[in-house]
Amino acid sequence: xxxxxxxxxxxxxxxxxxxAALPRCAQGGLGLITLDDVxxxxxxxxxxxxxxxxxxxxxxxxxxxxxxxxxxxTIIRLLIREELPTTGRVFVDGQDIxxxxxxxxxxxxxxxxxxxxxFKLLPxxxxxENISFALLVTGRxxxxxxxxxERALSLVGLSQRRDHFPDQLSGGEQQxxxxxxxxxxxxxxxxxxxxxxxxxxxxxxxxxxxLLRVNELGTTMVMATHNAEIVNALRRRVIHLDHGTVVRDExxxxxxx
Length: 257
Ligand SMILES: Nc1ncnc2c1ncn2[C@@H]1O[C@H](COP(=O)(O)OP(=O)(O)O)[C@@H](O)[C@H]1O
Ligand SMILES: [Mg+2]
Description:
Blueprint: H1 12-20, E1 33-41, E2 47-56, E3 61-65, H2 72-79, E4 87-92, E5 95-96, H3 105-111, E6 112-116, H4 127-136, H5 142-156, H6 171-183, E7 189-193, H7 201-216, E8 220-224, H8 228-234, E9 237-242, E10 245-250
Parallel strand pairs: 3-8, 3-9, 6-7, 7-8
Antiparallel strand pairs: 1-2, 1-4, 4-5, 9-10
The chain binds adenosine-5'-diphosphate (ADP) and magnesium ion.
Adenosine-5'-diphosphate binds next to α2.
């Protein structure tokens, strides 16, 4: 995989400018995530999260682990405001996103990129169109969208595949397209919900190397995973959920205690 790295990717200047643009009341830096005594009960009575306190620092790389149904995806959906907590508060980049007005949600989703296990690419759009779509819907000019799309394509090493359709790509290339799309708005946080769940081991490692690179460039990274091999090899922060509760939170953790 080749890395033609854009100089401004999450660079200090960009980050500082954006930080200066935050309201003065905002606590903490870009990329900071705080869950303050968060519980989530779904209307059918399922208690998906219970009294979760969590702080993820700007620039951190952390894994969310735990059995199926432990609450990993629910945390992710709270962070992009696809769900609201039943009680508690959630802060992203110092902003209370529970109290946030509905009209501010698109702006939040530009600051928090997400990728999923099943890629969620638009099948009738090319790689480049899948990526630039995220910019054009936010009213950027064609020229700016095209520049930023090329930057994201080069970051994930897919410039040569820009005009292919998703069904002409390998699973790893599809996930790299999804990562480029998630990064094209230069988010301060990238969240991945089991991003290697559909990939073979070699391709999984390529994706992880890419996510590590993105993190090195300054993006806070949160990854839900069942991939014990990767978690154990990386020795990063591990947040272990069990039935909606954080049962383990280790700085250089392993997949299992
Ligand atoms: N929309 C929903 N309505 C009802 N229950 C839900 C909903 N979404 C998730 N759940 C339940 O909440 C719990 C946590 O789910 P989830 O966060 O998806 O777990 P994980 O991602 O760790 O597998 C599970 O018991 C799941 O069935
Ligand atoms: Mg899940």
